[in-house]
């Protein structure tokens, strides 16, 4: 199963928890669910979906990786996006228990857009115990 996400700015986060949860088959009682973003300039992370923390995450990535001055910029001026996405990683794996994502109280799955605005594809696979 796959879904798309429309992003609105260059560096942003989008809560995709409900869309990942919707991909869990009704007959899967326990197992794992893996979501994978099919792009090299976006990533996925499990984190708290709180606006200030999401802003902090964006600021952290912006501060950690400068916007310019990278060799790849000679090609298409988005090396910073690739480097930020490499830090985040392209996937998350979440346990499934009692037919639902077994996330902690404050945990959500966030898509981290590093080169938007764009349309991103996230594929979801599940495996039963």
What tags apply to this protein structure?
single chain, 129 residues, alpha+beta, Jelly Rolls, 5-stranded antiparallel beta sheet, 3-stranded antiparallel beta sheet, 4 helices, 8 strands, 39% strand
Explain what this protein looks like in three dimensions.
This protein is of the alpha+beta class. It has one domain (2-128): Sandwich (Jelly Rolls), CATH 2.60.120. Helices cover 26% and strands 39% of the residues. The protein has four helices and eight strands; from the N terminus they run ββαββαααββββ. It has helices spanning 17-21, 51-64, 73-76, 79-88, and strands at residues 2-6, 12-15, 30-37, 42-48, 91-97, 100-101, 107-113, 119-128. The chain has a five-stranded antiparallel sheet. Strands 2-7-4 form a three-stranded antiparallel sheet. The longest helix has 14 residues, at 51-64. It is elongated. The chain starts with a strand and ends with a strand.
Short description:
The protein has helices at residues 17-21, 51-64, 73-76, 79-88; strands at residues 2-6, 12-15, 30-37, 42-48, 91-97, 100-101, 107-113, 119-128.
Computed structural class: alpha+beta
How far apart the termini lie comes to: 19 Å
Please mark out the parts with pLDDT under 50 across 5 or more consecutive residues, or reply none: none
Overall pLDDT metric: 97
Tally of separate helices: 4
Number of strands: 8
Radius of gyration: 15 Å
Q: In CATH, what is the class? A: Mainly Beta
Q: What is the succession of H and E elements? A: EEHEEHHHEEEE
Question: Helix content range of the residues, please?
Answer: 25-40%
**CATH 2nd-level architecture:** Sandwich
Q: List the domain count as a whole number.
A: 1
Strand content: 35-45%
CATH superfamily: YjbQ-like
- For this structure, the CATH topology is Jelly Rolls
Main beta-sheet strand count, sense and barrel state = 5 strands, antiparallel
Strand order of the largest sheet: 1-8-3-5-6
- Outline, from the CA principal axes? elongated
């Amino acid at each position: 199963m796959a879904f798309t996400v429309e992003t609105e700015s260059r560096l942003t986060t989008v809560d995709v928890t409900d869309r990942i949860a919707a991909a869990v088959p009704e007959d899967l009682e326990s197992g794992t669910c893996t979501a994978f973003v099919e792009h090299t300039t976006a990533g996925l992370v499990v984190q708290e979906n709180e606006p200030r923390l999401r802003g902090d995450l964006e600021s952290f990535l912006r501060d950690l990786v400068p916007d310019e001055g990278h060799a790849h910029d000679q090609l298409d001026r988005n090396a910073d996006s690739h480097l930020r996405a490499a830090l985040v990683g392209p996937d998350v794996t979440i346990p499934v228990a009692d037919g639902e994502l077994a996330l902690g109280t404050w945990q959500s799955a966030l898509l981290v857009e590093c080169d938007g605005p764009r349309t991103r594809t996230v594929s979801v696979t599940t495996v039963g115990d």
